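Hi C.,

You asked whether I'd gotten around to modeling the 174-residue construct. I have! Everything is below, sequence then structure, no commentary in between.
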Amino acid sequence: MSAPATEPDRVTAVGLLFEAAAGLRRTLAPATEEQLGVAGQAFEILIRLYRSPGHALRMSDLAAQTGLTPSGLTRAVDRIEVAGLVEREACEEDRRGAFARLTALGIERTDAAIAQHREEVDALFGALFTTKEEETLVDLLRRIRDQVHPDAAHLSDDLSCIDALEVKRTRSAR
C-alpha cells in the first residue's frame, strides 16, 4: 500500500538519507584516511577530540558521541593510538574511566585532515545549495540527529578531570 499523495513518503526520505550518507563516505573517506594514516572511524573520533576542551574526552563520552560500543571504541582508539595520534590518560581525581587525548601529531594531522575535508566538501556542495538551503539542511539534519542519536553531542558535566590532566601535563613539560 502506498502513502497518500498528500503525505510525504518518509520511507523514501530515510532511504535517500542512507544513500546520501553512504555516497559521502565512499567519496570523502579515502582522502581523509590517507591524510590521517588510519582508516575506519578514526576521523570521527579525532574530530570530536579536536573540538573538545583540552582535545580530550572521557572514553564513555566518546563512545556515546560516536555511537560505538565501549569495546568498539576501545579497538578504534587502539588503532589510532598505535598511529601516535591519541593517548589514553587516567585521571587521579576520577577513577571511573580513562580519557583519550590528541597528541601533538594527532592535532597536526587532524587539522590538516579537516582542511582537506573542508575543500572536498566545498567542491561537492559549493554550487549545489544556496546559503539559505545549506542552513536549512543543517538545521533539519541536526533535528534528525538529535531525535535518533541524542548522545551525539553528549559531554560529561564534570570537566575538572580534563583540567587536572592539563595541569599535570603542563607541569611535566617544564
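If it helps when you're writing up: DSSP finds seven helices and three strands in the chain.

Thanks,
B.
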